[in-house]
Design goal:
single chain; about 140 residues; alpha+beta; three-stranded mixed sheet; 7 helices; 5 strands; elongated
């Protein structure tokens, strides 16, 4: 099975980002409008500062009774991130997600986010290839 690089996976992606002072509500609206489960938080120079996910909305905002209009992302984002370089293979990011128990890995080049790999969208092509290999294997088994 071909193991694509992260650059191939994020190619053409629009990075959904927000500044650290952005309110949780504004970030949640941007995530909903873009149909993504996470948003990268950047500083004023576009450098990666953190990550905010739909789980963070639930666990760090709603469950704690914080006001999403008054709570900035900086107060509830994950700032100690595991990131991956674009030249790494998909398997590297998937291993990071499995080992770390998270679902999003920012793909970063020169400190700037260039995309996001998630457990949900990262497997699209690989699942199709895997299914094709299974069908071919089963077809060969029928012939034998």
């Amino acid at each position: 099975m071909h193991n694509r690089t992260l650059r191939e996976i994020v190619e053409g992606q629009t990075v959904i980002s927000a500044l650290a002072e952005t309110s949780v509500r504004a970030a949640a609206i941007a995530m909903a409008n873009s149909k993504v489960g996470a948003i990268v938080v950047v500083d004023d120079k576009g450098q990666l500062a953190g990550l905010f996910t739909e789980r963070d909305v639930l666990n760090r905002v709603v469950a704690k009774g914080l006001d999403p209009d008054k709570t900035p992302l900086s107060a509830v984002m994950t700032s100690q991130l595991q990131i991956a370089a674009p030249d790494k293979p998909l398997s590297h990011a998937l291993h990071m997600m499995f080992e770390g128990g998270f679902r999003h890995v920012p793909v970063v080049e020169n400190g700037r986010p260039v995309g996001m790999v998630s457990a949900r969208n990262a497997l699209g092509l690989e699942i199709c290839q895997f299914e094709k290999e299974l069908i071919e294997r089963d077809h060969i088994a029928e012939i034998l």
